[in-house]
Design goal:
membrane, 4-stranded mixed β-sheet, 5-stranded antiparallel β-sheet, UgpAE/MalFG_permease, 2 domains, alpha+beta, elongated, ABC transporter permease subunit, MetI-like fold
């Protein structure tokens, strides 16, 4: 029997750190790492570093780019009223939008934990993030339309308004000249001559299309032929227009319709003593009036134009309206990030607080929010950086006449450089200002990320 002995061999020793072979290996590792990083560095230089340096240099030249003007563009930037308005609007965005988004995200993240279908709810709120700013701008431009037939928000506002205050059925109605009615300064109509109990009066109006008459409107001819009792003042309010032509002005013809739901007042000595509303055939009557002369009045409320809703994209509300569209897009983002931080909270601390008798509001205010402070800070700073660069929503949603009232630094930079100003020197100065405003927030965010990794 033959026994074979195998000699164990130890692995080759690592080169000494200071040896020539060790230095060659380290140098080779650096070269390989640089080769891998080089494409990314070239792309970063071409898309970020070069444009930044070019913009800084371009900001010191005039509009044509041929004459060096030094800091003149920066001086002009702070003298231009449009730029000052853009800085003011940007400050409003920075103060309002991130704070609202962080607060909404925190509230929704906490509440979603108590919802049975939490995943579906999160998905629903996060879906707007998949919509481009261009598409979102078009959606909200239509939603904010002043015409209630197009704008969904104004349609809702008009519906609620009309449900509580009502609306006029005859906004286009008017009296014929020389037919016995005079118009007051407030838009009301009153009879030129007085009437007394026992009389019947016909009040003719025009300006209403037969198709726009209420569905219960009936012909006024029979009502106009009724005689008034000695103790009543009666009459008829009718459309002084015969479909198809014919008829006589100032006289109720057989095919002319009464105007229902028209308010009529009896006025004596400048004071309204009685009021009523016309029936479906336009007839009305006042009973129990004392003897004397009365003026019949059709109040201005009969002819009030319909309520058109809120001017969402007017100079006063255009910036809050655009911020509302921004909230719709980014609330899901804030909720998901804060929800991820909420999932890492120590549950034993929350349960201990409940066992000690703390209610949910105390737990939220004194435990949940302090523990989430690092996450809330990161979300807030990230949103600050994002709102400083907002462009698409402002440019698309704000109509041309109020574009200047809604402008921010990003849109002002584009308008000055390419949107008609053709002054790329001033536009570059605005770009440098925007960069200087964003850098502190970026540095703060990077430092927080590094501290969290440690």
């Amino acid at each position: 029997m033959t026994t074979t002995l195998v000699k164990e061999t130890s692995p080759p020793a690592a080169p000494a750190p200071g040896s020539a072979r060790g230095r060659r290996l380290r140098r080779r590792g650096r070269i390989v790492a640089l080769l891998f990083v080089l494409p990314a560095l070239l792309l970063l230089g071409a898309l970020v570093v070069y444009p930044v340096l070019f913009s800084v240099g371009r900001s010191f030249f005039d509009a044509s780019g041929t004459r060096f003007v030094g800091g003149e563009n920066y001086t002009e930037m702070f003298r231009d009223p449009a730029t000052l308005k853009a800085i003011r609007n940007t400050a409003i965005w920075v103060v309002v939008a991130p704070a609202l988004l962080t607060g909404l995200g925190l509230i929704l993240a906490v509440l979603v934990e108590k919802v049975r279908w939490a995943t579906a709810f999160k998905l629903l709120l996060f879906m707007p993030m998949a919509v481009s700013f261009l598409a979102a701008g078009i959606i909200f431009r239509l939603a904010y339309d002043e015409n209630p037939d197009k704008g969904v928000l104004n349609a809702a506002v008009v519906s609620v308004h009309d449900a509580f205050t009502g609306t006029s059925s005859y906004p286009t109605a008017r009296a014929r000249d020389g037919q016995g009615l005079a118009k007051d300064t407030d838009g009301a109509y009153r009879t030129r001559t007085s009437a007394s109990p026992g009389n019947a009066v016909a009040l003719g109006l025009v300006g209403v299309r037969p198709d726009d008459l209420p569905g219960d409107a009936r012909p006024a001819y029979a009502a106009a032929g009724r005689q008034a009792a000695p103790d009543e003042l009666r009459g008829v309010v009718y459309l002084d227009f015969t479909p198809g032509g014919g008829g006589q002005q100032g006289k109720v013809d057989r095919r002319e319709s009464g105007l229902p739901e028209m308010k009529v007042e009896a006025v004596r000595d400048g004071r309204t003593v009685a009021s009523t509303t016309t029936a479906s055939d336009g007839s009305f009557r006042f009973e129990g009036l004392s003897d004397g002369s009365y003026t019949l009045k059709l109040p201005a409320s009969n002819f009030a134009p319909p309520y058109e809703g809120v001017s969402w994209l007017g100079p006063a509300l255009v910036t809050p309206a655009i911020i509302g569209a921004y909230l719709w897009i980014w609330t899901g983002f804030a909720m998901v990030l804060i929800g991820a931080g909420l999932a890492t909270l120590p549950r034993d601390a929350l349960e201990a607080a409940r066992m000690d008798g703390a209610n949910e509001w105390q737990i939220f205010r004194r435990i949940t929010v302090p523990l989430l402070a690092p996450v809330l800070t990161v979300v807030f700073v990230t949103l600050v950086i994002n709102v400083m660069k907002v462009f698409d929503l402002v440019y698309i949603i704000a109509p041309g006449p109020v574009q200047e009232d809604a402008t921010v630094l990003a849109t002002q930079m584009w308008l000055v450089s390419f949107g008609g100003g053709n002054n790329q020197g001033l536009g570059s100065a605005l770009g440098v200002l925007l960069l200087l405003l964003v850098i502190p927030a970026m540095v703060f965010n990077v430092r927080r990320f590094r501290r969290s990794q440690r």
